[in-house]
Known about the structure:
This protein is of the alpha/beta class. 18% of the residues lie in helices and 19% in strands.
Amino acid sequence: xxxxxxxxxxxxxxxxxxxxxxxxxxxxxxxxxxxxxxxxxxxxxxxxxxxxxxxxxxxxxxxxxxxxxxxxxxxxxxxxxxxxxxxxxxxxxxxxxxxxxxxxxxxxxxxxxxxxxxxxxxxxxxxxxxxxxxxxxxxxxxxxxxxxxxxxxxxxxxxxxxxxxxxxxxxxxxxxxxxxxxxxxxxxxxxxxxxxxxxxxxxxxxxxxxxxxxxxxxxxxxxxxxxxxxxxxxxxxxxxxxxxxxxxxxxxxxxxxxxxxxxxxxxxxxxxxxxxxxxxxxxxxxxxxxxxxxxxxxxxxxxxxxxxxxxxxxxxxxxxxxxxxxxxxxxxxxxxxxxxxxxxxxxxxxxxxxxxxxxxxxxxxxxxxxxxxxxxxxxxxxxxxxxxxxxxxxxxxxxxxxxxxxxxxxxxxxxxxxxxxxxxxxxxxxxxxxxxxxxxx
Length: 441
């Protein structure tokens, strides 16, 4: 059973622990970053015989550590320092700054002063708990440079650190030198801590915050048992916190994999910043009050598999950037029902206009394409007949005209033999052959 995390700002519980442990003056010091969700819970669950300090999230964390160790080294011979903070490959988030490959040069003097081992004594151990700090080439280079500057033996995590329910563990898999690898957090606390030591990806957070701000996030409607999104300024939440928000899902890399907010009262314009969700596979915003045009930047989402913007009041053209070259994994594209008469909602809309982009006919992965109940005009692109994986093609209730390409009508004989074709439109050119106004399949 997961333990409910204390709020990050609950410092009263922690302050008493810090004062008590300072009297012990042990050789093991645990430094907690206050941005870590539930840091007070972790502090309360440290192994016996450790000192603990907390970093102020509003100040430079590297400078705080330097000052703290300078004072501590004057009275104690440290054998282990445990840094419990958020992390990323080759990066530690400390206070309001980061210690990384790009910032090590500016902190060389401070970091080099962290340890002062006595002659003949073993190198102190520096244990880094942040998620993925040691991962990849960036992680390996970061540890090498940190080892060279501090002289400490290092152990660090190359995976997610924290709750097993969130895909984490408490193993520090990568070592440099011969560190003493003894996790400072008691086993019972490890088992019950509900978070992971990773913030949301910055681009993911910027994208969902733009969606929240642009579409009246404070007025979104959630039902009983659902959890509203709690975005606050530029403070990036832990993945373990954001993953509890209704409609937001994450993959094993801690990246946003899906947004599903159906009929949640999203009112406003879709932000182009959604293209920052580089690992998203599902974007479903059906049945809201989204207006304006569809951002062409959505075509940057190469991993997108499902895009559902139906039942809104979107207008303008379908982006011509929507093509197989840009969206090679898209299987479901639903843009129907954006035409709305006055009285059917607070605002009327003509829906999507202009021709059907020929680029849609190059998204050969599509199994479902529904553009019905808009104001699309022109002819049906012949290359839609090349979408042989389609199970459903619906283009009805638009202003399409001209002959229906034979290749489109022949889709029912494609490798997807149960293809449903709904092509009714009110306008016909009267040209010979099978016309969009006269054929329904």
